[in-house]
Write a structure and sequence with these properties.
Radius of gyration: 27 Å
EC number: 2.7.7.65
Catalytic activity: 2 GTP = 3',3'-c-di-GMP + 2 diphosphate
Distance between the termini: 34 Å
Oligomer: single chain
GO molecular function: diguanylate cyclase activity
Organism: Pseudohalioglobus lutimaris
Largest sheet: 5 strands, mixed
Keywords: Membrane, Transmembrane, Transmembrane helix
């Protein structure tokens, strides 16, 4: 399994948002009049915007996260602005302290699969079910606390309200979330961790004035950031390979300086491979090639040009400088072996397939693919990006004609 450690950089934005909100909270009590009214209602206004964007982009997890953090803010504003010594307030606080990590864990673990389908309905029902279970669970914990010390009793420390048990639960969920960030390499997990952090501080520092408003705004802004990043990915990322798309390439070509090189790459005999093994296997091949191309060195930026063709821009590099990096990518793709199971020997029922997994490997084929590449640099004969691409394409064609699985520059 490939781990994307660079994805941890995405946590910087939620961290800055939550940190800035903690600092800004200290100045919020000085506000008055209309500013105070706006402050109290701002989390709701941000939530409305998030719900609209989540609906437009079909991001069910982020929509449910929006509803969850808004419900927490409403609960604090309407029912928890009293002493937690009151039984009703203590019970609701415990419900919130359980629901926050449990719902966050659920949203983190289940991948996004759309909104208006059976899965989306089931996903929402289970989300509401988890929230509902927190009420009887809180009653059980409250009853247990009457017989002795409870790990879920509020105010374990001076200046800290959240119980030890809920704190450990939130920490465990945060650790799981960090693991998912580097495993999945998507924006949603970073956003959900930001929402978890904002809810955590809302409960842990409940005694502080305006903490719920500050964290409600922070949680909403984390969601806004995530939804905007999602819209960017939809517009500028290729859905299959995860590489930057043709639209992103066209915009980048307009900003290149006076010195650069462009490489055009193509999967050899891809149509023949697709016809023989099927489009599903072909898609896996494209993902494999894209993952290797995306790791090209020498400052190269990879794009999916279309079909089985890829483009790499090397700012401030000559074609000779790029050849070694491209040849390394070519060699790593050629050396990678893929195992293709014989579908005819696979059991019809999935349960039988799980029991007889080894049997499906009997008729497997081990295959590999290769790529060809052409590289051209900007010069007097190729004064603009379009001309450089044409020159690189011509050299790609030459690589194909002279035997494939090679780089021509």
């Amino acid at each position: 399994m490939h781990l994307h450690w660079a994805a941890l950089v995405r946590l910087l934005a939620p961290t800055l948002i939550v940190g800035a909100a903690l600092i800004a909270r200290e100045y919020m009590p000085d506000l008055g009049g209309d500013a105070r009214v706006i402050l109290v209602n701002l989390p709701y206004l941000i939530a409305v915007g998030c719900v609209v964007m989540a609906y437009q982009f079909r991001r069910l997890r982020l929509m449910l996260a929006t509803l969850g953090i808004t419900a927490l803010y409403w609960l604090i504003q309407t029912h928890l602005q009293v002493s937690l010594a009151q039984p009703d307030a203590a019970r609701l606080f415990l419900v919130a302290s359980l629901a926050l990590p449990l719902l966050s864990l659920y949203l983190l673990l289940i991948p996004e699969r759309g909104m208006f389908n059976t899965f989306g309905l089931l996903f929402t029902v289970v989300f509401l079910g988890i929230a509902g279970i927190c009420f009887p669970l809180a009653d059980v914990l409250v009853e247990a606390a009457t017989t002795g010390d409870s790990a879920f009793s509020a105010r374990p420390l001076e200046g800290y309200v959240l119980s030890v048990g809920a704190s450990k639960l939130a920490l465990a969920v945060a650790i799981v979330g960090l693991g998912l960030v580097v495993m999945r390499n998507t924006v949603a997990e970073s956003v959900l961790l930001g929402v978890l952090a904002s809810g955590f501080f809302s409960l842990a520092l409940l005694h502080l004035e305006d903490i719920s408003a500050a964290m409600g705004i922070a949680g909403g802004l984390c969601l806004v950031w995530g939804l905007l990043r999602s819209s960017y990915a939809m517009a500028y990322r290729d859905e299959l390979t995860g590489l930057l798309s043709r639209r992103a390439l066209n915009e980048r070509l307009n900003t290149l300086g006076r010195r650069y090189s462009i490489a055009m790459l193509d999967v050899d005999h891809f149509k023949r491979f697709n016809d023989k093994h099927g489009h599903d296997v072909g898609d896996e091949v494209l993902k494999l090639v894209a993952s290797r191309v995306n790791q090209v060195g020498n400052g190269g930026i990879a794009y999916r040009y279309g079909g089985e063709e890829f483009c790499i821009i090397f700012p401030r590099r000559s074609s000779e400088d790029c050849a070694a990096a491209l040849d390394d990518v070519r060699a790593r793709i050629a050396d990678y072996k893929m195992s293709i199971r014989d579908r005819r020997s696979r059991p019809q029922r999935s349960k039988d397939g799980a029991r007889r997994r080894g049997a499906t490997r009997v008729g497997t084929d081990e295959v590999s693919v290769t790529i060809s590449a052409g590289v051209a640099a900007r010069d007097e004969d190729c004064p603009d990006p379009e001309a450089v691409i044409l020159a690189a394409d011509s050299k790609l064609y030459k690589a194909k004609k002279t035997g494939r699985n090679r780089v021509i520059f």
